[in-house]
Amino acid sequence: MRKRQIFLITGWTVLTVVFLLIPSSTPRLIFAVLTALTALVAIFVSNRKERLGETVNTQLEKTERVSFPIDSLFEATIDSMHEGLLVVDRDMRVVASNPVAYRLFGTTPRVVNQQRLTELTRNPEIYKAFLDALRGVERSSVKVDTVGPERLVFELRVTPLPSENGSGPNGALGVFIDITRTEHLESVRQEFLSNVSHELRTPLTSILAFVETLETGALEDPESSRRFLSIIRKNASRMHGLVDELLELTAIEGGNVRLRVAEVELRPLVDESIASLAAKADAQGIRIHNQVPEHIKVYADARRLERMLMNLIDNGIKFNKPSGQVTIKHESGSRDRIIVEDNGDGIPQHHLERLFERFYRVDRARSSDNMGGTGLGLAIVKHLALLHGGEVTVASELEKGTSFTIHLPHPREE
């Protein structure tokens, strides 16, 4: 029992004895009972506080026992970083690194650590950044390109590590931040803007030229004016088509297009697509054959599937031989396959991988300037196929023709 408890019991006992000397028995009895109850409550509260204090101390002791060593915590932190870490001493010798740095330099921990920086890399930008840091100059960032199986781009930030005696940097810490994807996206953005500018500039230049010609007196010649207006209309239509396809492609890629997938009879849909392009095919002497069997049904958004078919058939018309042909077929299997093939000149194999990119053309001479396309048709087909949960593939052989296949999945069994 604690001293505080003993003091309380003794004090209340003395008071009780004093009140027991009072002549009246009833007040003495009441006070005695209250005094005893108060003492018991005080003892209970005091014991509860002591037990609570012991519990807290026990928990603190447990917390101290399970704390992590600083060295292990630091090592786990740098090993889990997404950035490459490299620490060099005053002699430019690597004293610490992490797994990302090993992959960056294409080597192992045993080779990296204790090796001089000049032995690890010949990149002058990396060496200069660390050298400046050892001289006390902290540079904001340096862009570093690596040469290897794949091109990687890093942003390098090097910080001087001060010595304890204040005599200058005792080493330097470099952090390599991977910006390869960011650089790629920026390159795609610039290429996209360049392509859009080119596609719009060509018809705009033509429109302005013929408008100026009309303004300088060609209006007086009805035959010439009609011809110029026809050219202006054609170029304006090209610009309108380009803007429409850009907006549609942006909506598809942004997830703003909602499909209404249902059972669609394929042959009538192919007939409608052929009818829409019949005049264009006749003008070039191209024959289009619908070889899809009767009553074949696929699961797709009818309007979007018609758009894919029209883009592929139109492509087969534009890049075909004189008096060539385009054939549409269907094959069944684990997925429905809709095949659009032509007997044109074919496409070299090294172009096939990039064929579905925006504005990509196999032959710049056969551009939209002559063929009337926007360079976005195949990109739209690709993204609409993906939106259906399928894909589009291409196969081609020079001098024999090209075949595009839309793969559509069957409906899921409920």
Question: Pairing-aware structural class of the strands and helices?
Answer: alpha+beta
Number of strands: 12
Total domain count: 4
CATH class category of the largest domain? Alpha Beta
CATH architecture of the largest domain: 2-Layer Sandwich
For this structure, the CATH topology of the largest domain is Heat Shock Protein 90
Strand order of the largest sheet: 2-1-5-4-3
How many H/I helical runs?
A: 15
Q: What's the quaternary structure here?
A: single chain
* Portion in strands: 15-25%
According to CATH, the homologous superfamily of the largest domain is Histidine kinase-like ATPase, C-terminal domain
Average pLDDT, all residues:
79
Distance between the first and last residues' Cα: 74 Å
Primary descriptors:
alpha+beta, Beta-Lactamase, Helix Hairpins, 5-stranded mixed beta sheet
Give an overview in words:
The chain is an alpha+beta fold. It folds into four domains: 3-66; 72-178, 2-Layer Sandwich (Beta-Lactamase); 183-253, Helix Hairpins, CATH 1.10.287.130; 262-409, Heat Shock Protein 90. Helix content is 52%, strand content 19%. The protein is built from 15 helices and twelve strands. A five-stranded antiparallel sheet has the order 2-1-5-4-3, with helices on both faces. Strands 7-9-10-12-11 form a five-stranded mixed sheet. A hairpin with a 4-residue loop joins strand 1 (84-89) and strand 2 (94-97). The longest helix is centred in the N-terminal third of the chain and has 42 residues, at 25-66. The model is unreliable at 364-370 (pLDDT under 50).
